[in-house]
Task: inverse folding
């Protein structure tokens, strides 16, 4: 039903960087060590230069953005579905990405200014919850409005940019490791379907953005909560469309990340989902934007 619904080197370099310190005991410790490493700066001769700077906002109602460094990563999964293969290296230019999924509060500023349709919140709440029931076309319209408002280029990420940002220098299924955990994300039952309240995940439906720990790039909710639209056309197998934006009115578009009602398999970094541009009837669809490098 998909059509409807960095590297090992960095890991071992990090371990050697820790050196005489005690071995990392958990994914949480690894993430904390990687964040510290990012702050201190990485050697310039490694494949990915992982450096971050403070987040920023271009206007009071604009989404908060985080600078993501240039680098490369292995896209896809050898153990995933057929459309996640074959695994291949992708080079990524630096960009800024939404720290959180676009919220109802942010999207409402757009609907009030333009008269665009206001999406249904399903009774789950608005404000800081991620906007839902938005189509690819809705997300593109919001990006175009922000671009005009700020004189900057806002757009949806390519599929490759999204996966690179979700992985944040890791090669595991999720940024914290290979085992799904409700301590790190809002998602559903282990087997389809429906939301689940467990551990830190106290939301059967969408959670307010930023309710869980950020990944090593400083991004929240890249796994679970809502599916996120990308600007790339869905193809099986990969054919290069994963690194480009397709702004035509044809083909399916890729979504990533899974939602609050999906099983953990669907929120893996490499899991791919495709759907039609004008569909907005699913309560698990949201998005976040990027600002590409000049």
Result:
């Amino acid at each position: 039903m998909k059509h409807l619904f960095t590297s090992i080197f960095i890991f071992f370099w990090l371990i050697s960087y820790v050196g005489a310190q005690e071995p990392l005991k958990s994914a949480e410790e690894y993430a904390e060590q990687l964040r510290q490493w990012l702050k201190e700066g990485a050697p310039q001769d490694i494949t990915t230069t992982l450096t971050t700077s403070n987040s920023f906002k271009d206007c009071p109602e604009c989404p908060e953005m985080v600078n993501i460094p240039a680098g490369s990563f292995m896209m896809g999964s050898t153990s995933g579905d057929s459309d996640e293969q074959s695994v291949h290296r992708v080079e990524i230019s630096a960009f800024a990405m939404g720290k959180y999924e676009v919220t109802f509060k942010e999207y409402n500023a757009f609907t009030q200014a333009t008269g665009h349709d206001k999406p249904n919140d399903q009774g789950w709440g608005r404000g800081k919850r991620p906007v839902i029931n938005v189509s690819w076309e809705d997300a593109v319209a919001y990006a175009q409005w922000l671009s005009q408002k700020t004189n900057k280029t806002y757009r949806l990420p390519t599929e490759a940019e999204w996966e690179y940002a979700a992985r944040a220098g890791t090669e595991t299924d999720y940024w914290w490791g290979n085992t799904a955990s409700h301590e790190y994300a809002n998602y559903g039952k282990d087997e389809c379907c429906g939301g689940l309240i467990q551990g830190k995940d106290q939301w059967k439906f969408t959670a307010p953005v930023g309710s869980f720990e950020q990944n090593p790039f400083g991004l929240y909710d890249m796994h679970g909560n809502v599916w996120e639209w990308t600007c790339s056309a869905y193809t099986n197998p990969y054919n290069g469309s994963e690194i480009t934006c397709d702004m035509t009115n044809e083909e399916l578009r890729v979504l990533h990340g899974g939602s609050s009602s999906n099983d953990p398999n669907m929120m893996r970094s490499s899991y791919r989902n495709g759907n039609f541009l004008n569909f907005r009837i699913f309560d698990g669809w949201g998005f976040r934007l990027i600002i590409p490098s000049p």
Remarks:
- The radius of gyration is 18 Å.
- The chain has one domain: 8-292.
- Residues 3-28, 37-53 have pLDDT under 50 and may be disordered.
